[in-house]
Amino acid sequence: EVRLVESGGGLVQPGGSLRLSCAASGFTFGRSTMTWVRQAPGKRVEWVASISGGALSTDYADFVKDRYTISRDNAKNMLYLQMDSLKPEDTAVYFCQRDMSRGQGTQVTVSS
Fold this sequence. Notes:
Radius of gyration: 13 Å
Order of helices and strands: EEEEEEEEEEE
Helix content: under 10%
Structural class: mainly beta
Distance between the termini: 40 Å
Number of strands: 11
Number of helices: 0
Shape: globular
Strand content: over 45%
Largest sheet: 7 strands, mixed
């Protein structure tokens, strides 16, 4: 059974940073492309970033390029999202995703 558990969200001031983590189990993590998506209140889920199984390839939505960094530790079955220069419009629930499976999400709130 695929299990994804996100953590690391919280309240941060504009311009601040957070690092999200996702603990994965139940599948061959190192062979799976992993993705972060987010959902703001009243909005659809939007793709944020993806990373290939071997971490050789990453891709980012235009609105997070140069601010967010996706990474992974295949030895630990962990996925990460380093978020810098956060903006109020980054406020959302962030989910890690593998194929169509997501965790419960972690809330990120950017506010002064």
